């Protein structure tokens, strides 16, 4: 037997299968769209993206003429005609298309958009999968995406421009991970230091006293404010749907304790 056993090469990216599959689907869909004609791609976006005005007419009792009036009041004169034409096209059949609350997350506006979401998905989704497993990971992603879409539509009921991207779902992953990745180091039952995804979940009381959690939340909300209202020149090629980010984040924060298979860190007991 050789005294120097061969070295086992470790993979450069040790991503869970669920994360690899998610990235492959998002990148693959965007790549396939490059082979579509502009007309076909436009139809694809309109059919599968979130368009709040469509939901307002179908489910909210809003009349089409109210949407048109809102467009006349809120759109610059040089863009009224294109926006009106888009509104008439989108609202012609008065279909709600509720499934778009999920399908919009599979579409992206550019390679920068899909790659940015992919990086954050890998970073925050990996500890979620390792902690909760693939089924609960996909449930968390779906609920966060839907809540992001609903909150965006609630805040923009007359919007006729399509909203796409997995940012709402990714925001939910960020919120879910904040429950445990900033927890104090703890010992695993095997006698070693626990990995971040193995640490007990923080309680709300612990989270509001955890400086790392507060800094993370502050930076996240500040970044959303900057990109939503300041929009640094040259950094993005489209408007940021910050409402979808907020909706997805709050959803992930709320439902993760229900999906988490590990118990929360016990509160300190004083004698």
UniProtKB/TrEMBL annotation:
- Which is one GO molecular function term here? serine-type endopeptidase activity
Query: Where is it located?
Result: Membrane
This protein's GO cellular component annotations are: membrane
Grouped into one coarse class, the protein's main location is membrane
UniProt KW Zinc-finger keyword: no
Which residue range or ranges hold the Peptidase S54 rhomboid domain?
96-256
> Could you tell me the membrane topology recorded for this protein?
Multi-pass membrane protein
Instruction: Could you list this entry's UniProt keywords, alphabetically sorted.
Output: Hydrolase, Membrane, Transmembrane, Transmembrane helix
Pfam families from the UniProt entry: Rhomboid
Q: Which residues cross the membrane?
A: 12-32, 101-125, 137-155, 161-182, 213-234, 240-259
The chain's coiled-coil residues are none
Family as reported in the entry's similarity comment = Belongs to the peptidase S54 family.
Q: What is this protein called?
A: Putative membrane protein
């Amino acid at each position: 037997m050789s005294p120097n056993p061969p070295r086992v090469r470790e993979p450069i990216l040790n991503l869970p299968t669920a994360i690899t599959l998610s990235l492959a689907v998002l990148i693959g869909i965007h790549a396939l769209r490059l082979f579509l004609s502009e007309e076909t791609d436009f139809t694809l976006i309109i059919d599968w993206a979130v368009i709040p005005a469509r939901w307002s007419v179908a489910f909210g009792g809003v009349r089409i003429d109210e949407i048109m009036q809102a467009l006349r009041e809120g759109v610059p004169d040089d863009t009224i005609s294109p926006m009106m034409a888009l509104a008439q096209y989108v609202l012609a059949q008065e279909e709600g298309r509720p499934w778009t609350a999920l399908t919009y997350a599979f579409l992206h506006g550019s390679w920068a958009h899909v790659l940015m979401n992919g990086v954050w998905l890998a970073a925050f989704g990996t500890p979620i999968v390792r902690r909760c497993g693939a089924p609960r990971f996909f449930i968390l992603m779906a609920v966060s995406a839907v809540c992001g879409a609903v909150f965006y539509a609630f805040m923009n009921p007359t919007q006729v421009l399509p909203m796409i991207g997995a940012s709402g779902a990714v925001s939910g992953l960020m919120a879910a991970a904040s429950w445990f990745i900033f927890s104090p180091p703890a010992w695993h039952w095997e006698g070693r230091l626990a990995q971040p995804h193995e640490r007990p979940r923080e309680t709300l009381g612990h989270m509001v006293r955890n400086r790392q959690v507060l800094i993370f939340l502050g930076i996240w909300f500040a970044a959303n404010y900057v990109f939503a209202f300041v929009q640094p020149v040259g950094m993005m090629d489209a408007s940021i749907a910050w409402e979808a980010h907020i909706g997805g984040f709050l959803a992930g924060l709320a439902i993760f304790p229900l999906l988490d298979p590990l118990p929360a860190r016990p509160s300190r007991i004083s004698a």
